[in-house]
Amino acid sequence: MSAPRTPRIPYGGDYNPEQWPEQVWDDDHRLFTRAGIDTLTVGVFSWSLTQPAPDTYDFTVLDRILDRAAAENRRVCLATGTAALPPWLARRHPEVNRTDFEGRRHRYGQRHNFCPSSPAYRDHATALAARLAERYAAHPALLAWHVNNEYGGACYCDLCAGAFREWLKDRYGTLDALNDAWWTTFWSHRYTDFGEIEPPNALTEHWRGPDHTAFQGITLDYLRFTTDALLGCFLAEKEVIRAHDQDTPVTTNFMGMFRPLDYHRWAPHLDFASWDSYPPLDAPPTWPALAHDLMRGLKDGAPFWLMEQTPSTTACRDVNPLRRPGELRLATFQAIAHGADAALYFQLRASRGACEKYHGAVIGHAGRDDTRVFREVAGLGRELEALGDVTLGARTPARTALLFDWDSWWALETSDGPSRLVKYQEMVHAYYRAAREAGVDVDVVPVTADLTGYDVVLAPVLHMVKGDLATRLEAVAARGGTVLTTFLSGRVDEHDRAFLTDVPGPLAPLMGVRVDEWDARPADVVQPVQLGELTCEARLVFEIVLPRGAEPVGTYGADFYAGTPAVTHNRLGASGGEGWYVATALDQPGVDRVVRRILARHDLLGPYSDQPTVETATRVAPDGTRLLFLLNHAPEPARLTAHTAATDLLTGKRVEKGGPLTLDPLGTAILRVQ
Question: Can you state the angle between helices 327-337 and 286-297, rounded to 10 degrees?
Fold first, then answer.
């Protein structure tokens, strides 16, 4: 099953009319019509409303919300409401409240406050989901099911300890296998009974926070267990929904590059991927683009839904700047360019009270339709209505892949060496940014993905190498492709045990190098690296590389390893394939130089790769229509020369090959390529 079929891009967002008297609903729907809003996400935090007591269900308000939506010809993404406990459940079953990393049993409060291993939580959540599905499966407004909301958070209670032990029995079978995987002969940790195993937290293996653990193996497995425990909650709700509704797609909203949960383990169980985009305020455009492509990669390139974004400000940071005029439109079209088949907001009407009352909304507290934000939302709604269904179902024809691996992320950042300053997201983003700014479409895929369709595979900080990955990467090069990896790659196996071979472990034959030593330094220590005529800067980790077939491309310029290779490439015989190894954290110009050289070898540089503020992305519709998105992230016009004849779907204007093509400040063009 895939995403819902719609005649245009669904446009709308989170709507909480239960927070307002019904006379306000009339104004809401009048304004929704003016803004082109046709899709409402409802019921996300409605558990205490729909089930006010253990044996009492009341769907009166929800009935009116859905019936009103249907009467207004709007569709509903209906949430199960199970992301936040009702107070009565926490009081009746205290064990549903989480125990935190410090070992404290929480009392009732906040949200995302449930223990995923609690039978009481599971029973009540699935009972509610079942009743909702039974009642609304045939409702004319129903478009999709929205299970829970932004799953996250770990629990360390006795219930989770017991569930973790059972999970370990299933994974390892025997204590001998577990002891070997976790290397428990270190510090006299060898277990003789599964009952001896405690969740790794501040009271057991951790001493300076979640990333400082005495045993990476147990911490890594607890992260995997938490992913599976929360996934089990999702699957339990989906199962009872399916008992009453076989046809409506089911999803839950992810959070992009969210470290606590491995979304690749969830992906097969979603009918379509969806996520909430709230990028850091100072992030470059490639940061949300990376998250979009990661979400698209969850379902083998199928389109995703942008389930939430703010129309103006957020409310969860110390300082919450406003989106400037034009930024909302640009961010929305960027999401569509990268595979979004829906554009939804949080929130449609601002909450009057509590912690999100100042969060951005399409409709503010005064209910006005003459605000700048409302005008921008309405203008975008008209554009999306005119665009129709041309982008729906379109896929990205990428020839470049970037590997994204939660296991490597966890293992790298919980390791006591070589450097805690190396951040997985930042390293991955640097190589993604280089490729995207070179005008290349990128598929962000798991390490288990089929790589046969790619000419270039980027695998920065691939700290953990599992299964047959090394063999599959070698196969890319064997047919003439290029594989790039970097420092701190090929270090450990799936249990976070060091390979008993030269670094970079199983990747060494492909890379043609041996890493003899590594030097980690504070962030203010900078080493020059010479890449041809470019002198760039390197930081954090400096691996000392001995070529074993590879040729130096860049060299260190200082310290006792001056003149030794910092960047190498290894040519693989008659195939013409190459393995590139970057032994240090290059600055962005250095990463750009390396990546562009690789892309140029495969004739992959985009036609506007000389325009640093212009982002390009390609989608191909089911009927073969090729769409080229051009997004200008600068506050000044971008003046281009059209590389092909095309028609701009947003303006209807035709451009000719070799003719002028101007993008407005923060402007977008969607070119139907002839």
Answer: 30
| Cα gap 291→146, rounded to integer Å | 20
The answer to whether the pTM exceeds 0.90 is yes
- CA dist., res. 250 & res. 637, Å (int): 42
Q: Given 3-state DSSP classes, what are the helix, strand and coil percentages for the chain, each rounded to the nearest 5?
A: 35, 20, 45
Q: Is residue 149 part of an annotated ligand binding site?
A: yes
Total length of the chain: 674
**How distant is the alpha carbon of residue 485 from its chain centre?**
21
What lies within 8 Å, CB to CB, of 97 at 6+ separation is 85, 90, 105, 106, 107, 108, 113, 114, 115
Distance CA 244, CA 247 (A): 9
- Predicted confidence at residue 575, as pLDDT, reads 84
Q: For residue 565, give the nearest of 515, 521, 526 by alpha carbon.
A: 515
The pLDDT value recorded for residue 536 is 97
Q: Which of the residues in the chain have pLDDT under 70?
A: none
Residue (of 283, 284, 282, 305) closest to 295 by Cα position:
305
Is position 155 annotated in a ligand binding site? yes
- What pLDDT is recorded for position 674? 72
Does the annotation place 77 within a ligand binding site?
A: no
Domains and CATH numbers, the chain: 11-156+220-387 (3.20.20.80), 400-601 (3.40.50.880), 614-673 (2.60.40.1180)
The CA distance from 216 to 404, in Å, is 20
Could you tell me whether strands 527-531 and 654-655 are parallel, antiparallel, or unpaired per DSSP bridges?
unpaired
Q: Tokens 């929704």 correspond to what residue?
A: 32
Whose CA is closest to 156, among 94, 121, 82, 106?
106
115 labelled as ligand-binding? Answer: yes
Handedness of CA 78, 275, 322, 311 (dihedral sign): negative
Has 399 been labeled as part of a binding site?
A: no
The pLDDT, as a whole number, for residue 112 is 84
Q: Which residues are annotated as catalytic?
A: 150, 308
